[in-house]
Amino acid sequence: MDKKMQTVLPKKKKNTLKLKFETTRSYAPALESTSAANIKPQYDLFINGKFEAPLSKKYFPTINPSNEEKLSEVAEANAADVDKAVKAATNAYEKVWKKMAAKERGKYIFRIARIIQEKARELAIIETLDGGKPIRESRDFDIPAAANHFFYYAGWADKLDYAFPNKRTESIGVAGQIIPWNFPLLMAAWKIAPALATGNTVVLKPAETTPLTALKLAEIIQEADLPPGVVNIITGGGATGVALVNHPEIKKIAFTGSTEVGKIILQTTAGTNKKLTLELGGKAANIIFEDAPLDEAVEGVINGIFFNQGQVCCAGSRLYVQESVAHTVIQKLKDRLESLIVGNPLDKNTDIGAINSRQQLQTIQKYLKIGKQEGAELYESPCALPKKGFWCRPTLFTNVAQSNRIAQEEIFGPVLAILTFRTDDEVIEKANNSPYGLSAGVWTDKGSKIFNMSKRLKAGVIWANTFNKFDPTSPFGGFKESGFGREGGLHGLLPYVNLINS
Ligand code: NAP
Ligand code: MG
Description:
The protein is 37% helix and 19% strand. The protein is α/β, with parallel strands linked by helices. The protein folds into 2 domains: 42-280 and 482-501, Aldehyde Dehydrogenase, Chain A, domain 1; 285-471, Aldehyde Dehydrogenase, Chain A, domain 2 (3-Layer(aba) Sandwich), CATH 3.40.309.10. The strands form 6 sheets. A 7-stranded mixed β-sheet has the order 14-15-16-13-12-18-19, sandwiched between helices. It has a 6-stranded mixed β-sheet with strand order 9-8-7-10-11-21, with helices on both faces. A hairpin with a 2-residue loop joins strand 2 and strand 3 (50-52). It starts with 41 loop residues before the first strand and ends with a strand. Mean pLDDT is 95; it is low at 1-10 and 12-24. The protein binds NADP nicotinamide-adenine-dinucleotide phosphate and magnesium ion. NADP nicotinamide-adenine-dinucleotide phosphate is lined by residues 178-182, 205, 207-208, 237-238, 241-242, 245, 256-258, 261, 264-265, 279-282, 313, 410, 412, 438, 478, 482-483.
């Protein structure tokens, strides 16, 4: 074990406030062994069922953001490589996949789901190494959720005739799919599973900083004996994404990432016949009413913003707390912040891991400065941070104004902006005053208030007395600049089919 990588526990403060949640300073590190993770020194592009050297002849490194060590290097696909992958997908679509009996397609998807389960431990370790998220999260959320997504859509493959009343479905062709770095395997599952179930073939591009679990998925797809070319996985940066979006044989683009890039894709696909879904950024409002069970609410807020280091599109990054309980809630949040364990993502005790990249850390640090300049009050956990790697202390801002940039713009880090309100109407107006509309949370004892809020909040997902809960049967997606189209559930089939009157 690398001594440098031991979990870093919060430093003891001298004359500390009374801690409601007494910080446990006696945790011994409980490191997950990396022996189960088989990472090759180099990965080629996965095209037509085989790993092939890139025509670009270029490779780039992927690192572990918790210690900046190189894990592997992966191929960089240029436009000619993208063309090769799309051609393989078109060929597989025309000759094999669209003709295959739906029941048979379903069997392949079930097989992929089962192999993900079998390899869950290895996938969780690699997700944590490549992306910096705590092993507890990769192990208990990312990987099981990815397997569940394949299981769920495998079930739909031969039931599409029952999905949309009086309609039958027709597949559309090759889908180009582009995903971000915050849930690498899960986002790949969200994209690939519904596309395959509906009879389409796929070219997927993972993010530059987290390509490894997508490449492991390529190995799983080989093991599942999926016909060559049905799924192609090509690594590379933004330019690879651009080539994929612009390829004329692509019939559908599914993009998850920033609003900035989403807008570019919307412009470049305008006037083409490509179907498009965009899952973009967010600035979710988490709302605590005075009648809420406050301890549960505080725990939900902590989960909502610090889950995956706040690098979650639906993170509850704006907290609106009713004025009468604001003081109590803020104190409870500060106390809880001090007990969060920040450090080695491979340690099973760790609550908060590394930030995904130097670039993302710089963005977060820029917003910490902006928040202070705007006059908000910063409170951060006093924990020590490891010397190497990309780290950010969990942070709260109080005295935040609705117009402040830290309340309006997506920070994508463990930073919570806290605002107050007095009435229902006021909080609705404030919560909806955002260019985004991906998710929101409501904490109250009253069912009627939940119904009222969920009707009036402009967000794709509204959680009540909980936060960040996902299920493959539930659709997910945004309003306004958070994008359009839904992934998950029955709704997640729609972007991959043409509906024909039956
Ligand atoms: P990003 O910069 O937009 O990148 C997303 C993906 O697009 C990456 O694979 C990226 O490649 C690629 N890309 C970059 N420029 C492109 C271009 N011009 N054309 C085509 N593809 C291009 O976003 P990110 O920083 O990786 O991810 C964070 C963002 O994703 C946040 O805003 C977050 O809210 C959003 N997100 C949304 C959801 C949702 O479901 N709504 C889920 C997760 C994340 P490289 O990685 O190589 O640059
Ligand atoms: Mg990496």
